[in-house]
Amino acid sequence: MLFEISGLSKRFGELAALTDVSFEVRAGEVLGLIGPNGAGKTTLFECLAGVLPSDSGVVRAGGREVPGGERSQLLFYMPDTITPWGSQSVRWALDYTVGFFGGKAELRSGVVAELDLERLLDRPIGALSKGQRKRALLAVGLLTSPPALLIDEPFDGLDLRQTRDVAAALRRHASRGRTLFLSIHQIADAARMCDRFVLLSNGRIRGEGTVQELAAHAASRNPAGAFTNLEEVFLALT
User: What is residue 186's predicted lDDT score, i.e. its pLDDT?
Assistant: First the structure.
């Protein structure tokens, strides 16, 4: 296990965005966070990354609590729909990631090739299309050094071929030992991509495990149901 989350809660006034959220993230796995719109997925990622303070709960790694201010050593969070360094080139962003964030210079050329960024290296990030910007920012994330990478909607803005190629690149990095925790809106993409899943609905964990483990959980609640894929399990548990 790389780290575990225990009793994480977050409120915005009268709204309980997260309630007693607990699960574990295992080293080298691709873990999918799935749930309906408004389930609390982005809030969960922001609390884990220390961007947003939680009201309660702890993150533990190696048997000790990791406070929000120290989590940058454990994980790197890549939000969705952001445009950092808009006037700077993709090349500059990658160089900055390697230099300032202590990124992995030895992976740079491979990541550029995997994400088809060669033609975009001298383009300003702010001038890229949504899909191009997504690939550039995924490259930034993959070059960072923390053991876990949290990515909010890694396939948003990508066409079918790009989604396939990006998924293959992410799997290759996971096979080398990088832990990936992905919030994915499309269940079909999540089913193809992830080893295990965390199901989140109305700010609460509704299930954690492989498709088979989640299907068994769904069947225990509804013995008459037939749960043969992630979509059916998702609907039954959330």
Answer: 87
Task: Look up residue 48 and give its two tokens.
Answer: 């884990």
The rounded Cα 14 to chain-centroid distance in angstroms is 27
- Using CA atoms, how far residue 71 sits from 49, 50, 60, 186, 206, in Å, is 6, 7, 10, 28, 25
Mean pLDDT computed over every residue of the chain: 95
3-state secondary structure of 127: helix
- Neighbour tally for 161: CB within 10 Å: 9
For the chain, how are helix, strand and coil distributed in percent, rounded to 5? 40, 25, 35
176-233, pLDDT tens digit by residue?
999 999 999 889 899 999 999 999 999 999 999 999 999 999 999 887 777 888 999 9
Q: What integer pLDDT is reported at residue 81 of this predicted model?
A: 84
Separation between Cα atoms, residue 93 and residue 78, nearest integer Å: 14
Is residue 149 within 8 Å of 76, Cβ to Cβ?
yes
DSSP 67-103: -GGGGGGTEEEE-SS--TTTTSBHHHHHHHHHHHS--
Question: The whole model's pTM is what?
Answer: 0.95
